[in-house]
Amino acid sequence: MTLRGVRKTYRLGRHLVAALQGVDLDVRAGEMLALAGPSGSGKSTLLNLCGLIDLPDAGSILLRGEPVQRLGERRRTLLRRDVIGFVFQNFNLVPVMTAAENVEYPLFIAGLPEGERRRRVAQALERVGLAAHAGHRPDELSGGQRQRVAIARALVKRPALVIADEPTASLDSHTADAVLELMRERCRDEGVTFVFATHDERLSSRCDRVVPLLDGRVQTAPAAAAAAAATVWSAA
């Protein structure tokens, strides 16, 4: 994924807020990239653009060589469904579904056979340490457990790109380490790309790159600028 000169502005009452101001960013295949910065720096807005949830007001975003702004809503929806996994800060779990059903839902939408769905769900919950809680609804789980369900749901469909907003915020150190190791395995073994927004040094220290944001701009040191040149995220 390649972003050039990306700008995004929101209206709050009578005021316009420039969330992103001319962001250039290259996201490499198979890397773990952290967006760091204080609240209001533009991290979540940039995540939404990378995840095709929103579109920029100006500038360009290329995904697999396609200009995102030229894609119709149906095409963007299919890409979000088939290519991108999401871990939201508020989990976005369906309250009436069990943990297993929440994890299974994207596979059901994708039309996978029931046997394959059940196999993948069991494996995903086992990997995040929740096999024993498969039949529990979100209100029967702790915040950390709900976060792990959200992570399992994002990974179960084997996406090429995972967008995650503070994925370790609700996790204790032991669980966070286990989840980060799982993500690292997906990077290494399957070439999955992860883009995080985080304040958590446990996460940012384990990433391949940290991109600092401030007031909607990338704060690029000279060495980081050289390392970030000439790369494109392009999943097979």
TrEMBL record:
<dbReference type="InterPro" id="IPR015854">
    <property type="entry name" value="ABC_transpr_LolD-like"/>
</dbReference>
<feature type="domain" description="ABC transporter">
    <location>
        <begin position="1"/>
        <end position="232"/>
    </location>
</feature>
<dbReference type="Pfam" id="PF00005">
    <property type="entry name" value="ABC_tran"/>
</dbReference>
<dbReference type="GO" id="GO:0044874">
    <property type="term" value="P:lipoprotein localization to outer membrane"/>
</dbReference>
<dbReference type="GO" id="GO:0022857">
    <property type="term" value="F:transmembrane transporter activity"/>
</dbReference>
<comment type="similarity">
    <text>Belongs to the ABC transporter superfamily. Macrolide exporter (TC 3.A.1.122) family.</text>
</comment>
<dbReference type="InterPro" id="IPR027417">
    <property type="entry name" value="P-loop_NTPase"/>
</dbReference>
<dbReference type="GO" id="GO:0098796">
    <property type="term" value="C:membrane protein complex"/>
</dbReference>
<dbReference type="GO" id="GO:0046677">
    <property type="term" value="P:response to antibiotic"/>
</dbReference>
<dbReference type="GO" id="GO:0016887">
    <property type="term" value="F:ATP hydrolysis activity"/>
</dbReference>
<dbReference type="GO" id="GO:0005886">
    <property type="term" value="C:plasma membrane"/>
</dbReference>
<dbReference type="InterPro" id="IPR003439">
    <property type="entry name" value="ABC_transporter-like_ATP-bd"/>
</dbReference>
<dbReference type="InterPro" id="IPR003593">
    <property type="entry name" value="AAA+_ATPase"/>
</dbReference>
<keyword id="KW-1133">Transmembrane helix</keyword>
<dbReference type="InterPro" id="IPR017871">
    <property type="entry name" value="ABC_transporter-like_CS"/>
</dbReference>
<keyword id="KW-0812">Transmembrane</keyword>
<protein>
    <submittedName>
        <fullName>ABC transporter ATP-binding protein</fullName>
    </submittedName>
</protein>
<keyword id="KW-1003">Cell membrane</keyword>
<dbReference type="GO" id="GO:0005524">
    <property type="term" value="F:ATP binding"/>
</dbReference>
<dbReference type="GO" id="GO:0089705">
    <property type="term" value="P:protein localization to outer membrane"/>
</dbReference>
<keyword id="KW-0813">Transport</keyword>
<keyword id="KW-0067">ATP-binding</keyword>
<keyword id="KW-0046">Antibiotic resistance</keyword>
<keyword id="KW-0547">Nucleotide-binding</keyword>
<dbReference type="InterPro" id="IPR017911">
    <property type="entry name" value="MacB-like_ATP-bd"/>
</dbReference>
<keyword id="KW-0472">Membrane</keyword>
